[in-house]
Each structure stands twice: as structure tokens, then as C-alpha cells.
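Form 7-S
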Amino acid sequence: MAPSLDWLSRLLAIIPVRGQLDTHCTYGAPWRIDQPRSEVGEMAYHVIVAGSAVLEEPTGDSPLRLSAGDILLLPHGEAHVLHDGGSIPPVPAQTRAGHNLRISENAGRGERLVMLCGRFVLGRPQDRLLRDYLPSRLVVQSAASAGGGSPGTREVLASLVLLMRDESITDALGGRAMLDALSTALFALTLRLASEGREAPVGLLALVSNARLAPALSALLHEPERPWTLPVLARLCNMSRATAARRFQKSLGRSASELLADIRMTMAVGELRQPSSATGTVAGIVGYQSEAAFQRAFKQRMGMTPAQWRRAASVSTQPIRPLPS
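Output:
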């Protein structure tokens, strides 16, 4: 019998994520990075290894200061600006091809920043389940002095960051493969640490940090084909229907039935990628009693029929874009 998976392992089995470290930045103040909006299906990330940075909020909110050990993830892919925090025009950066990634440097003489920049690539449209259920901006702190979360997770994450830094500046055999694998692990560890925080943001991370709702989340992720109803989920959590509905809405920002529908659609597109999987078979796998019901739900959620989606998927791929030379 296969071992049962925790919620994060199960989620990442449904939604495969591939990481790629693109650029090793070493800047002296003043410096500035204007990063355009991410490609569809991609999430930018930045890791502050040394020094500090300021993230300008596109919403106009107060800028966010990032320190060494901070990991910034932008699940919604917005364009963003990072800078040293001063008002002096930046010293131009020069970018060259390194052994396994780009090296970006400037001649600034102020506080030195060392930062790793990359992206996480998710299959489409499975990426919607993560993008829609994660905050637009997620910051976790791997520094030992940071509060919240498990010290063990922070220590592992801090060690991973240092290993990524070392691999990014070393011409070692298999370096590119190592950096991509470490980037992929970075995604899982970032979500793990974020879910352990005392004040997880609204969305999936807030839901998993609510121990009372954990049985419901596990049930939805592991057995989405079952005809789950709110009363049944409430009983699993030992609470009333009204309490379960209220807690789901407060933590997740939407209902349990909406989450179930999104999990089912995410699994469905994975199954539809297989040419041998008949639409009726996929309908049963993800919990619909008839192919017609599945067709209606899929079109409502995805904007096209399963057949149309399958045809579109057969002529499109989602490769990781190569690094510029």
C-alpha cells in the first residue's frame, strides 16, 4: 500500500511545479530592478542572500523592506520594482553569461546586495489553482531570528538558499540541473514555512494553518471523486454546518464546494493530456456521475469543452524558456 501524502505533497502531485534560477545579482547602492509581468503560467521569485532591498507595491501601499534570508514569491505574476531604498538614480548594471545562469553586477559602492532571481513554471491551466488560492505577494523569512513557523523548516530553507548561492557561482558538473532542482525544492519549502506561520494570509495557506479544517482539506485533495457536501465535511471536522461554512469562507475566501470544483478541474486537465483517456473515463475519475455533467462543469469553469481543451493542448506546450545568452 502506498503511503498517504500530506496536503502539500498531494497538491504538488496534482500541480507539477518546475523551478529555474535565472540570475545571480550583485549590486552596490544605488541600484534598481524593473521586472516586467511574468509570462502566463510563471511566478517570479527573489531570494535576498545578503544586504537588503525594497519592494515597491504596485497597489500604492507602503514599500516593503526585505532583508537577508527573505524569499519573495509573486504568485499572480505582477510587474514589480526592487531597489536599494534611496532616491539617487541607480548605477547601471551589466549582465553577462555565467556558467549556468546570468550574472548581473554594477559598480555601486553602497551596501552590497546579493540576490538570486528566478521563476516557477506551472502547467496550464493547473496553475490557476495555485495562483487563485495564494496571495499576490508572499514573503517568508528563513533567517534564524525570524518569528513564526518551525525552526527546523527555517534552518532547512536557509541551508537550501546557501547551497543555491554556492552552485550559482561555481562551475561544477551538473550545475544547471542542480540549480533547477534546488529551485523546485525552494517552492515547496517556501509554502511549507508560510503555512506554519501564525498569521497565514487568506487563501490556501490560511486554510491549512487552521487545524480544525485540516480533515476537510485532506479529504478534498485525496478523494475529490467522492460526493462531498458541506454537512459531510463539517462532520469530519467535528463542527456544525454553519461553523464549517463560516470558517471556510473566512480562511479561504470562498466555499468548500468552489475549492472542490477547482481541484476536480485541475485533475481533469491532467487526465485529458493523456490521449488514451476518454472523456467519460475522466469524468468518473474526478467525481462526476455522467459525462454530460462533467462537460457542463468543465465548460463553465474552463470556458471551453474538454474536447476543445484537448485539441488546444495538443498543439501547445509549456517548456521552460532558455536563458538568454
